[in-house]
Amino acid sequence: MPVLGPGSPLPTRPFRVLVAGASGSGKTTLAARIAEVTGGPHTEIDSLFHGPGWTPRPTFVEDVLAFTAAPAWTTEWQYGQVRPLLLERADLFVWLDLPKPRVAWQVSRRTVLRRLRRTHLWNGNIEPPLHAFLTDPQHVVRYALTMYPKNRLMVMHAAQDRPDLPVVRLSSHAEARAWLAGPLASAVRA
Q: pTM value?
């Protein structure tokens, strides 16, 4: 299946939606908005993965297996150990493909605000001190910038692995809003 643009009609009504994109691109926000339009639940996959103290939760894979067994869901396409399962069970793949400078700005701004506000994330975690950007190779900002080019390759491989799966590429937040109100809403109403 060719990659669809923000104005392309969807071939069928989606029930199980994956949202891909670089860290900090807005995947979770878009996934929540997709779930609002489709009427299905949104499961934030980070909340299943991160336990207290940023440790991986031992039930992560089982939790993903459980929610993806349902007839409808929307989630983010993350974590190598479950990406193949998510891809196999999805009926729509949405790729939020923002330019790298935009992603860098968004993930940096979000990280700084979360840290300054001591925003509680999943299972009581908060962003590490800002100096961790310099010392932690897995710091979310460094990770987002390092993984940015690899994300595109993973999406291309996913499209090859599931040639039957519709892929929608959105290259801006404006395109995402237009797609939500246009092709996605039309497919849900049909």
A: 0.93
